[in-house]
Amino acid sequence: MPRRSEPTERQCLVSREVRPTAELVRFVLGPDDQVVADLKRVLPGRGVWVTATREAVAEAERKRLFARGFKESVAVEPGLAGRVEAMMEVAALSALSLARKAGSLVTGFTKVEAAIGSGEAAMLVEASDAAEDGTRKLTAAIVRRFGTPDGLPVVRLFSSDQMGLALGLTNVIHAAVLAGPAGNGFLACASALVRYRGPSITDIA
Questions:
Q1: Which residue segments constitute the domains of the chain, with CATH numbers given?
Q2: Could you tell me whether strands 9-11 and 24-29 are parallel, antiparallel, or unpaired per DSSP bridges?
Q3: Do 145 and 117 contact (CB within 8 A), yes or no?
Q4: CA 41 to CA 118: how far, in whole Å?
């Protein structure tokens, strides 16, 4: 989050459009004048801002716009857009782990189905490699509770292995994030990752 004294809007280096900082990625100069992403917006130094999409970051790299933004010679290691995506993925998985530590996450098909049925679930997290049968049954549980399959956000961004590693568990296919600050933090990170990647079969439904 920006500091209180900082503007809540910035100009995108690529499009020149003014956007809320929540829709932008801040970049700063690190050692040896390397351009690095500052996702938490806490690193010292002058920053430049780029719309938080893979396409915009790749364009800034391709057109060598960072030198113009920083008004000096800079170094950009190839693949910046991919590294930003990887950082955002790590942030989302870390937020998922924090939700579990805060007691705001349940895993396992039976517990997840019960959380949906009781209304405790604020969102469903399914592995991108989840079996169709389990996905279908939990969609049916959402329909029973809310009357529509769109009644609950469904996050399908990570593989079972990724989820298991983040949570310190094995064979994690389904999880339910419960309402609360920790759950909201995960949804914010997941939504940012989806926007960055653009349309994908692994998305937030």
A1: 9-78 (3.30.1230.10), 85-197 (3.30.1330.30)
A2: unpaired
A3: yes
A4: 38
Q: Residue 70 above 50 pLDDT? A: yes
Query: Which pLDDT score, from 0 to 100, does residue 4 have?
Result: 53
What does the mean pLDDT of the chain come to? 92
**100 close to 167: Cβ distance less than 8 angstroms:** yes
Taking a C-beta distance cutoff of 8 angstroms, is the pair 21, 3 a contact? no
Positive or negative: CA dihedral 162, 167, 168, 173: negative
Cross-strand partners of 106: 176
Q: What is the DSSP string of 143-180?
A: HHHHSSTTSS-EE--S-HHHHHHHHT-SS--EEEEESS
Rounded Cα gap, residues 29 and 147, in angstroms: 50
Nearest alpha carbon to residue 157 among 132, 111, 189:
189
Alpha-carbon distances, residue 205 vs 110, 122, 149, 155, 174 (angstroms):
21, 13, 9, 7, 15
pLDDT tens-place string over residues 103-145: 999 999 999 999 999 999 999 999 999 999 999 999 999 999 9
φ/ψ of residue 103, rounded to 5: 75, 20
pLDDT digits (tens, 9 = 90+) for 27-49: 999 988 999 999 999 999 999 99
In angstroms, rounded to a whole number, what is the distance separating the alpha carbons of residues 128 and 12? 32
